[in-house]
Specification:
This protein is an alpha/beta fold and 139 residues long. 47% of the residues lie in helices and 17% in strands. Helix 2 runs parallel beside helix 3.
Length: 139
């Protein structure tokens, strides 16, 4: 059984956070939920997070700033930014994906997460496999 990937899910709306948490956990992900950007950043710094899924509009540290801080610590960590305010996305962000709230189906969110996590794993996992025949041939 492959290890579960850990998603840091951030939203100041308790109901939205709860729905996303259930959606992700039923698909086999471990979910750490936070209600604001400051708590999420503190949790991220402890390590073990594979992907960040955050709302944009939150009091204090908003989603765009949270992603900026996360990318400064770990540039390869994928981040998805959600917002009900599509026009706000005109701002430049470091998010890998932007999804407008209520305008995507859950399957689209799950597929984006899956693709970002595969990309994060990327060549570092494929490369050793391609080297195995050489190593076996040399032995």
């Amino acid at each position: 059984m492959k290890p579960k990937r850990t998603i840091l899910c951030v939203d100041d709306n308790e109901q939205s956070l709860s729905i996303r948490k259930v959606l992700l956990e039923t698909r086999g992900y471990r979910v750490i939920s936070c209600h604001d950007g400051e708590d999420a950043l503190a949790r991220f710094k402890k390590g073990g997070i594979d992907l960040v899924l955050t709302d944009l509009i939150m009091p204090g540290l908003d989603g765009a700033k949270l992603i900026e801080e996360v990318k400064a610590i770990s540039p390869r960590t994928p981040a998805i930014l959600l917002s009900g305010k599509v026009r706000i996305y005109d701002r430049d962000t470091q998010a890998d994906v932007f999804l407008p709230k209520g305008m995507h189906i859950p399957a689209e969110l799950l597929e984006r997460i899956r693709l970002l996590l595969v990309r994060k794993r990327g060549p570092s996992r494929v490369q050793p496999r391609s080297q195995r025949p050489t190593q076996l041939g040399a032995a």
